[in-house]
Here is the input.
Amino acid sequence: MMNNETSASEQQFLKTYNPEQYKRPSVTVDMLLFTVARGEQKNYRKLPDMELKLLLVKRGKHPFKNQWALPGGFVQVDESLEEAAYRELKEETNVEEVYLEQLYTWGAVERDPRTRIISVSYLALVDHTKLTVKSGDDAAEAEWFTATLKIQEEEKKMTEEGFVQRETFLLTLRNDETTLTADVIVHRTKIGKVETTKTDISLSKGIAFDHAKIIVYALERLRNKVSYTDVIFTLMPDTFTLTELQKVYETILDKKLIKANFRRKISHMVLETNEFTTEAGHRPSQLFTFKNDWSDD
Amino acid sequence: MMNNETSASEQQFLKTYNPEQYKRPSVTVDMLLFTVARGEQKNYRKLPDMELKLLLVKRGKHPFKNQWALPGGFVQVDESLEEAAYRELKEETNVEEVYLEQLYTWGAVERDPRTRIISVSYLALVDHTKLTVKSGDDAAEAEWFTATLKIQEEEKKMTEEGFVQRETFLLTLRNDETTLTADVIVHRTKIGKVETTKTDISLSKGIAFDHAKIIVYALERLRNKVSYTDVIFTLMPDTFTLTELQKVYETILDKKLIKANFRRKISHMVLETNEFTTEAGHRPSQLFTFKNDWSDD
DNA sequence: TCAAAAGTGTTATCCTTACACCCATGC
DNA sequence: GCATGGGTGTAAGGATAACACTTTTGA
Here is the structure.
């Protein structure tokens, strides 16, 4: 890191150097890459649940050594944010088809104990059947964790001029080997027209930096998006049964749905195929595909 | 700017200086501050329209000298993004009660012709009765412009694997002295699971940088937000008539609403007062206030 | 008197919700 | 046979959209 010699370009740089201008934050891109995969099958009849998976990398150095973090890296001067995001994706996986959306930009001063870092977070959704995670070539080990977000407590008090709300979430990221957890408390306050949201991590086991916050934010965004867009299909394989689709909705929304109503609601977004599942221990079910042009019917 | 002397802290800095690490983007915060104000009254009976106003500052230096830009500035190392946003607001106005929300982070490489800049944009909404814009003390002149966004053309073609969509917007920012316009074209493409949005400014008269894009983005976000939240009330004075409220909805949504239906829909979000308007050239109308606790009924 | 807006009522239609029922499979 | 899921029907309640009508004011 230290450098005693002075190169020509460095000389050039020093000529126009103004110390004040470098007292500025650096920018990283952090990636929230989600997929869906079947959980374990309890018996020959019962269908497996669909689990939501998030990719994390193990940190090799301090701070937060041996804890798990979101994949990410610095944005270079010659690449746009989207390019940096795609670069991150390519570094970790072989993704070709991916849904990518900018989530939020995190800018608290003490986010990173070393220096001032501003992180632009991106949500990426992929179909697990089209995906393999690269391994080995990067020093960091990357692994999938099953993500669950449960609301523990919710409290809302109305005040003279607004309200004070507190939601307590339990975030769990589980693996064959590892279980990471975090208690995340979201404080929402409204005084007149001023609305403030403050998110605290009251306890984080094994999740580096403020990444538990970011993951909770992403999961909440995903919950919202799923109910008013068709993003869910970016998580599905080319063909799927309606119950599989329903189960993905259910894990993301963390809520049971009524079959008949669910099917009516999504019927205009899917297309029948002539294929059926077999040997499932129960009546075969028809396979469907996403109907690209559902929005104009 | 140039500096020939070398201070102690600078010496210290140079010891650990690594030129590569400074090839990094700088971060600014850009502010989209909106209010609502009554337009001109056509005759003694007719109610004035409600106009959506945006605050812009005139650029004093190159690039884009004499063009109008969003108020904004660099994020310092010792302040969070929100702090930087509030600082910007305070620099331009006397706002106390303001709704503030992070919009989007803009990161194209050539956004600023001078250096690489990443801008985090914030949406701010204020009630104009509580607001005055500071003037004089800053070199830049700040002024309010009436913002209108009209869809000129819309085209959507379905393809094998997705669609190609093109929307053409005409953005107009009007003042007593100045009229700024921009043609903004939003290309939305979907190929399989990859959805891309590319926004181009085909013609920008008097609006600096890529700020026309950002303003269009903000107006679209405002349109969405208004239809599923209660943000609209952050733009309203303490008391208002239902027709005033309806007119604000109509200018933001750029769409006429049916009175009876509108009133039913928002009835649970407002509270009657005992006051009425007078001397309006027609039947007096009751004044209402925002009902803070509408969400739990 | 009358233009302009304030304010309310009616109806058809659609969407949501909850629940009930029958069907098909493979061990 | 039966557990498990596949698949459909019905009815109540609520929200939405379009339209029509009455009331009140001030120049």
About this structure: The CA atoms of residues 109 and 116 of chain B lie 6 Å apart. Chain B touches chain A through 61 residues (CB under 8 Å). Residues 23-296 of chain B form a domain with the Nucleoside Triphosphate Pyrophosphohydrolase fold (CATH 3.90.79.10).
